[in-house]
Fold:
Amino acid sequence: MGWAIETCNLFKSYDRIKAITDLTLTVPEGSVFGLIGPNGAGKSTLIRMLTGIVRPDQGDAFILGRSIKEKTGSIRQRVGYVPDVPTLYPSFSVADMFRLGCRLYEGWDERRCYELKRVFGLPTGQLVRNLSRGQKVQLALVMALSLRPRLLILDEPTAGLDPVIRRGFLQSVIEEVAERGTTVFYSTHNLNDLEQSADHIAALHQGNLLFSRSLDELKESIHRLQVMFARPQTEENLKTIPGLIDCQHKGRIFTLTVSGELDAIKNQPVLRAASLVEKVDLSLEEMFVALMKAHGYSFAPDYRPGGVLSGREEDAK
Ligand code: ATP
Structure:
């Protein structure tokens, strides 16, 4: 399998702010790859480098096998990009934008454009400047999908969309992947979106890559166990388990969240002494929260599923 995106030791600073530090990341072709991280983590900077808007200070990246430093129009023909704030022509109507897309892109698919326009109910005659923010995002997505891209890059695409449109948006993206094997690389704060669509996840914090894993790898790497002891146990004893992320208990029943290989975890002396060790299913979101915690993150105290990332624990102090 090839890489749709490959970054090699990318660096980018703005004055003294290190927006991206030594980032090496691969995005498999045909994957739906979610990029997460708190505000200011460097997601947009990375995406802007990949789309040629911002130049890296050091390192390189390859989009569909071509370096971002090469000036080649052929890559633009095959990459659909929806920025966080879509750049569209304000004095054009929606229909004018579609006509422009048809002129600019060799692979433009008029039928797909028509279908998507209907899905989103975009007002064809309306001027871009009079569209709402959500409608502009929808228009940018319809344009990006209609050029029949091999790679779709989306910067927080569902932010500001109402729930019905958001579902339509994700559905269109998922259809595109299912039908054509398009690679989708998107940044998001929304864990529900991630759960619905991504098969790979990478997390950034302060410009550093914390982890990059397929969903299967993620599922293999984090476990929740319910453990019962015949004799009273202390949390201190359980903290000897390598990879322990979280430990809660009620009486003699402990709920442990642990990263690592399941058999090796169960083989820890303290767990061999337990009268019951039972694996409990974790949702993707719970796994993700645990993994972030393992890397030193906390979630806001009022965090609810579908919530957004807060900062690192030490940042909050
Ligand atoms: P968010 O989730 O809030 O959109 P992000 O992960 O996309 O954040 P970036 O927009 O890439 O983060 O910003 C990374 C860092 O670089 C931040 O500290 C930001 O202040 C800084 N930064 C980004 N763009 C610029 C710029 N044009 N000039 C100066 N600093 C910038």
The pocket of adenosine-5'-triphosphate is lined by residues 14, 17, 19, 37, 39-45 (CB under 6 Å). Residues 163-180 form the longest helix (18 residues). The chain is about 35% helix and 30% strand. Residues 301-317 have pLDDT under 50 and may be disordered.
